């Protein structure tokens, strides 16, 4: 027990420091965050305290109001901090991958499964909804990336539904802050074992591509790969 108490005491300053840092980052994008939080806390506490005086139990309702005020303030702070974070991430390369990494249990994400020289990119997530391809970049360019990746998925796992989403603010696109919610609303059509099998098949494909033998150096002009496989093995 003596060892756990110092560890818990050391963790508390770390949490407080993290909360303070989150507040500072949120305040840069949301100047009214302090007034909003104070207003929420005062209103909730005032309402419960007023009810306490009306029914003759101001102490009990005051304590309950204090706890509920703290809870309401924490909820509002979390939502506004999340909104501010998404606002700062919007349009940044890799923002969609960061959201996918925190989508929750039951999903396996693979960032940058397809990319072009303009840094338009497609990420892949596998869950009970099937395979979800999430693209970020120029809407006109990523469509070809999505089409090619979707065609490959349909060829490898034809029995698994494949969804495609484009992150953005235009028509037919999904805003970054709504990406997680949109994916969680997709109908669940696969069981846990089916998700595992799908991940194994996609992982095996990746291993096959990474382990494929390639000749070192440039290939001479006019040279063709023999049908029997790698010429180095002969």
What are the key terms here?
single chain, 234 residues, alpha+beta, 4-stranded mixed β-sheet, 7 helices, disordered C terminus, transmembrane helix, transmembrane, DUF4191 domain-containing protein
Would you kindly provide a written description of the structure presented here, covering whatever features stand out?
- With 234 residues, the chain is of the alpha+beta class.
- The chain is 56% helix and 12% strand.
- The chain contains 7 helices and 4 strands, in the order ααααβββαβαα.
- The chain has a 4-stranded mixed sheet with strand order 1-2-3-4, with helices on both faces.
- A hairpin with a 2-residue loop joins β2 (121-127) and β3.
- The protein starts with a helix and ends in a 24-residue tail after the last helix.
Report mean pLDDT, rounded to a whole number: 77
Q: Work out the radius of gyration.
A: 26 Å
Q: Tell me about the biggest sheet?
A: 4 strands, mixed
Q: What is the count of β-strands?
A: 4
Pfam family, one: DUF4191
InterPro entries: DUF4191
Transmembrane segments: 33-53, 59-78
Protein name: DUF4191 domain-containing protein
Architecture blueprint of SSEs:
Blueprint: H1 4-29, H2 33-55, H3 58-89, H4 95-101, E1 108-115, E2 121-127, E3 130-136, H5 139-156, E4 162-167, H6 179-184, H7 192-210
Organism: Streptomyces ardesiacus
Pfam families: DUF4191 (PF13829)
Protein name: DUF4191 domain-containing protein
Short description:
This is DUF4191 domain-containing protein. By secondary structure, this protein is an alpha+beta fold.
């Amino acid at each position: 027990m003596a060892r756990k108490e110092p560890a818990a005491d050391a963790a508390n300053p770390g949490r407080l420091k993290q909360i303070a840092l989150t507040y500072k980052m949120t305040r840069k994008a949301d100047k009214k965050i302090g007034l909003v939080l104070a207003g929420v806390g005062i209103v909730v506490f005032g309402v419960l305290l007023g009810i306490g005086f009306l029914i003759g139990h101001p102490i009990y309702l005051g304590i309950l109001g204090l706890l509920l005020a703290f809870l309401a303030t924490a909820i509002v702070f979390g939502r506004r901090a999340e909104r501010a974070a998404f606002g700062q991430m919007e349009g940044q390369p890799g923002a969609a991958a960061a959201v996918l990494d925190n989508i929750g249990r039951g999903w396996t994400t693979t960032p940058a499964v397809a990319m072009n020289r303009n840094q338009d990119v497609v990420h892949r997530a596998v869950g009970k909804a099937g395979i979800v391809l999430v693209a970020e970049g120029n809407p006109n360019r990523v469509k070809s990336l999505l089409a090619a990746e979707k065609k490959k998925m349909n060829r490898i796992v034809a029995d698994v539904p494949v969804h495609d989403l484009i992150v953005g603010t235009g028509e037919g696109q999904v805003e970054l802050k709504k990406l997680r919610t949109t994916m969680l609303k997709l109908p669940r059509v696969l069981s846990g074992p089916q998700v595992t099998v799908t991940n194994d098949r996609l992982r095996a494909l990746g291993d096959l591509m990474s382990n494929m033998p390639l000749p070192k150096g440039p290939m001479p002009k006019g040279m063709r790969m023999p049908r029997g496989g790698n010429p180095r093995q002969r």
